[in-house]
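Quick one, probably user error.
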């Protein structure tokens, strides 16, 4: 089973990205944001997982699992990552310190990424461009890590598909 994990901070667009490309109405566990999630700037947040799937040209089904962004649900991250073949890391460029988010998620998923592979999608660059793609590349280089890196809009199916296909391509190249 081809299973891909979408992760990243709250509001990065994991739920949106999965619903953009899923062939079936995605299963979502979103609830209304409560007051202590006030910086969320959105109405709902994922508390357990997202799930959807799409089918490749060769008929293979790719299962899409999204993690909750909030750290208090981080026990779900390991559970959801089990059996995954690769990671899509989404980062919200409009958050205060997206480069710190990058480091946090690369560290949190270090073992998983080492065993599989990862691609990075930067969302909401239209909302804020205080950090550039070059800034992300420099941060990755300083960590001796190279991953495909794209600016994406999680609401655009094509953007999300490019990301997923890039991930499948690097995984194939590693085999
Ligand atoms: N302006 C803009 N909005 C975007 C872009 N990508 C996603 N969004 C919006 O950003 C929000 C992302 O929300 P979610 O998809 O719920 O984020 P999430 O990562 O699932 O968040 P949690 O489940 O709370 O961790 C949605 O309102 C999207 O419509 C983008 O590139 N530009
Ligand atoms: Mg979500």
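Nope, works fine. Designed sequence:
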């Amino acid at each position: 089973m081809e299973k891909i994990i979408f992760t990243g901070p709250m509001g990065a667009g994991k739920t949106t990205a999965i619903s953009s490309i899923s062939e079936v109405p995605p299963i979502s566990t979103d609830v209304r944001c409560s007051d202590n999630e006030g910086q969320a700037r959105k109405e709902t947040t994922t508390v357990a997982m997202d799930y959807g799937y799409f089918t490749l040209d060769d008929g293979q089904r790719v299962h899409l699992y999204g993690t909750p962004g909030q750290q208090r649900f981080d026990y779900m991250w390991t559970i959801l990552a089990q059996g995954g073949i690769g990671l899509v890391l989404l980062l919200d460029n409009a958050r205060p310190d997206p480069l710190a988010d990058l480091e946090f998620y690369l560290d949190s998923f270090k073992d998983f990424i080492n065993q599989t592979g990862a691609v990075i999608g930067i969302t909401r660059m239209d909302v804020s461009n205080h950090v550039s793609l070059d800034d992300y590349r420099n941060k990755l280089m300083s960590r001796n890590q190279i991953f495909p890196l794209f600016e994406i809009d999680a609401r655009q199916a094509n953007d999300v598909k490019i990301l997923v296909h890039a991930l499948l391509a690097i995984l194939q190249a590693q085999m």
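The radius of gyration is 15 Å.
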